[in-house]
Amino acid sequence: MRQETLPSARLARPAAAWLAAIAGAVLAFAAMASLIRAHADRMHLATGGAEWIWYTNRVPEPHPITFVATRDFVLDRAPERALAKVFVDRGHVLYVNGTRAGSGTQRPGDPLAVYQVASLLKTGINRIAIEAESPTGIGGILFSLDVHLSGRDAVVSDGRWRVDLAREAVEVGARYRPAVWGRPPQYPWGYPRIPEPRELEVR
In the predicted model, what is the mean pLDDT of residues 160-170? Predict the structure, then answer.
C-alpha cells in the first residue's frame, strides 16, 4: 500500500532547512563579532601581552604595602632606543639595572607613565625593578618595554616576574611568584593608554 506523506511532514522539511540556515547565520555573526572584538582589543592594548601583577591576591583587610617586582632578561646588544611603559596603582619607582629611571603615582583612568631607558640598558643580563606601593595593600602593576631591534613589548609583566618585600631586591632580584590578575581590560583600570604629548613630563 502506498503511504501518503502528510502535509505537516512536507511542511516540516523546509522549516527545518530554514532553521538550519538561521542557526548558521547566527554562528557566522557570532564568529564575526568575536573577530571584531579581538581586533578592538588589540587596538586598545598599548602594552601587548602584559598582564597585571601584584604582590598577593590575599588582602584580608586594608593595610599599606611597599614591595619590589623584578624581571631579568638578556639583550644581544645595548639598544639605541628603548621605551618603558608603566602603570602602578598607586605609586612606583622604576629602576633599570639598579639606576632610578623615574617615578610617579597613578589611579584608574590615568595614562601609562613612559620612560626613555636605552642609556640604562646593556649587552647581556639586564634587570627591571619596580618598587610599588599602595595605601590599601590592593593594586596592580602593568609593564611593557619596547626595545629597538628586539621589538615592541619585548619584556612585559607576567608570571615570570618575581616579587619581594625586601628593598634589596632592586639590586639582587626578588624571590617569590606574583599574583597575576590577567591582561587588560581588568577592573578598575580598563585599558591604560599612551599619554598625549601634553601629558608627558620631563622625567
Answer: 98
> What does the longest C-alpha to C-alpha distance in the chain come to?
96
Residue keyed to cell 602584559 = 50
Instruction: Give the model's pLDDT for residue 32.
Output: 44
9 lies in the same domain as 81: no
CA distance 4 to 13: 15
Per the listing, cell 589611579 goes with 107
> Is residue 113 domain-shared with residue 77, that is, in the same domain?
yes
Structural domain range at position 171: 52-199
User: pTM here?
Assistant: 0.78
Better pLDDT: 131 or 19? 131
Residues 66 and 101 in one domain: yes
Strands 151-156 and 140-147: antiparallel
Question: Could you tell me the CA-to-CA distances from 148 to 23, 25, 49, 168 in Å, in that order?
Answer: 48, 45, 18, 30
Statement to judge: residues 22 and 58 lie in one domain = no
Degrees, nearest 5: CA angle 81-85-91: 135
CATH of the domain at 159: 2.60.120.260
Handedness of CA 3, 6, 11, 16 (dihedral sign): negative
Q: Where are the alpha helices (DSSP H) in 2-69?
A: 7-44
Q: How far apart are CA 104 and CA 129, in angstroms?
A: 14
CB crowding 126-148: b at 16 or more within 10 Å, else e: bbbbbbbbbeebbbbbbbbbbbb
